[in-house]
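go over this:
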Amino acid sequence: MYLKKHESKLLLIPKEVEREDAGVIAVLTDRIPSVLIVRWFDLFCFGFAMCSYVLDFFSDIGIAIFHFWAGRHLSGALVLTFALLPSIIINIISMVWMLDDEMHWKRRAHPRRTGTFELNQKRFISLGKMITLCIFQMGPLFWYYKALYYGWMFTKSKKDCMDREKRKFFMKMVEAERDATLLRFFEAFLESAPQLIVQGSIAANYFRSYYMSGSGTYPYWLYFQAASLTLSIISISWSVVVQNRSLRMTRDDKVNIWPHEAILQFCWRFLTILARIITLVAFVLSYGIYVIPMIFGHLLVTLIHVIFLQALHIEACTHIEKLLLFINTVIHIFTPFNMAEGNTRWRYLCAYGVEFVEMMVIFVILPAPLNTFPFIDKVKYGVPVLFTIGISIMLMYYKFFHPNRRQLLGATSQVDLNSEALANEELSSSVLVSEEISDDSIRKIKVDTVEEENVTEILLEDECTN
């Protein structure tokens, strides 16, 4: 329904929760699923995110150094500015969160607080190391390492999931991952996405110059810049995937994402974002500084359909609603993002429809100097093909591999243990009664019930096989 307000998916804001001195863990206790599962794929996600963050950041710094070394000071300054400024903002936020955790740790460790289970715990990392990490722009790595550490401790523990210590490991992992994915998500669209347009435009101009010169050889830094651009696209695509996966892991009403589903999401995002970045670079090459009014026009159109289809409802937080709408609108410059609960069909149709129209306009008109760009005939057909393949993967994901399909079939990963045990007990009793009762009508009902359960089990087996 248009203009209907929905709950936010990006930020989980508790409703009328009494905050304890123990901090955010008390809030998270009510959000975590009853069945706690940490797969090796979850640990891989933490490690991959750490590696991609480091490679993405230092590749941008390396490109800036190459430009300065070659005397291209303007190019180097642009790359360095778009690399450092967002990174400084993200690390300041990370430092504030670290200090907040430090404050809560001291309050929990106070001798008077004898009722908390963290009374004799040591802090996870010293304050000096926290500050050092943030100074060297590696603050987000702390949260990923913390999530990886507690996830590893959870998998090593042989105790039952209802054990207090094991649940504590899971809660701490979830808390750290939530902070890490949120930081990485904003870092991707503050630093990586704008960096793609800047570096892509610079690389395209120099590639055209070297190609027109007829030398047939390209400088080594151009290959390095192509690798940096690829890493940035990977970073953006993966940040969207892990943000979605993190939200699903921490909610009892959601089913977590399986590895093959995350891979499909990543491929869909990678191909559509790649096509979008090439389109934006083509606009910059064609119109230069005049591309800014076009971006504002895109923001206006996006804001309209976001307000109509993704309006948020957060109790007593009107300013947060407006802030999230603005953030979502800016993100749509590079890729559509569903920030609100509810059906995504019309949201993605509008967002990707706008992207497709803009893409076809620039590659059909082919204004100068884009019409003389090397291999432009291949580019103008290749970009729509990439976009179409990405959309096809998205449709396949939502049709056959979306986690909600498993939820509708009764996936056990997020089902309450007590409810499951009670259901099994009732099922066993029902089978015993059916063997003793001779009434044909009742026996027929029992047989139908068993048949329906068998069908459900077959569907679940097929889903796991796929």
User: Anything to note?
Assistant: The longest helix spans residues 164-213. Confidence is low (pLDDT under 50) at residues 12-30, 110-120, 411-466.
